[in-house]
Write a structure and sequence with these properties.
1 helix; alpha+beta; 8 strands; 4-stranded antiparallel beta sheet; 134 residues
Length: 134
């Protein structure tokens, strides 16, 4: 009798623990950052916020852009959001909802908005992330 009561209690406890683990999955934060000597751009997964910061008082700002490539179309990457900073204290930020029906990349450049998702550092002082999504 003791053995079966213990087995039922252990099985119940194991089932309850499995239920807690299955329903309480942790939030996954895929935060990213790109930078040059003139500034940086970050993506914070919690809230889908992009922030760009000009760190060099040289009269030119830093400019960021988010590019999206849908899994369902063949048009390639399209610029879906821009944000810039320069000439003031602090950083500027903007939210953009990142989904999982395609891939995204973001690029930050000095002095001009990026013209493409994988802009060469030789064209302008730029840096970009690899592809990502939710």
């Amino acid at each position: 009798m003791f053995k079966s009561k213990f087995a039922r209690t252990a099985a119940g406890a194991a089932g309850a623990a499995a239920l807690v683990v299955a329903t309480a999955s942790p939030a996954f934060a895929a935060n990213m950052r790109v930078e040059t000597i003139r500034g940086y751009m970050t993506f914070t997964d919690d809230g889908d916020v992009f922030k760009v910061c000009d760190t060099l008082a040289d009269g030119k700002g830093v400019y960021g852009a988010v590019f999206y490539n849908s899994y369902f179309t063949t048009s390639g990457y399209e610029r879906v959001m821009t944000v810039s900073d320069g000439g003031d204290s602090g950083c500027d930020s903007k939210g953009y909802n990142i989904g999982n029906s395609g891939t995204y990349t973001f690029v930050m450049c000095w002095g001009q908005y990026p013209t493409g998702p994988f802009q060469s550092p030789l064209d302008s002082p730029c840096d970009s992330t690899g592809e990502f999504n939710e």
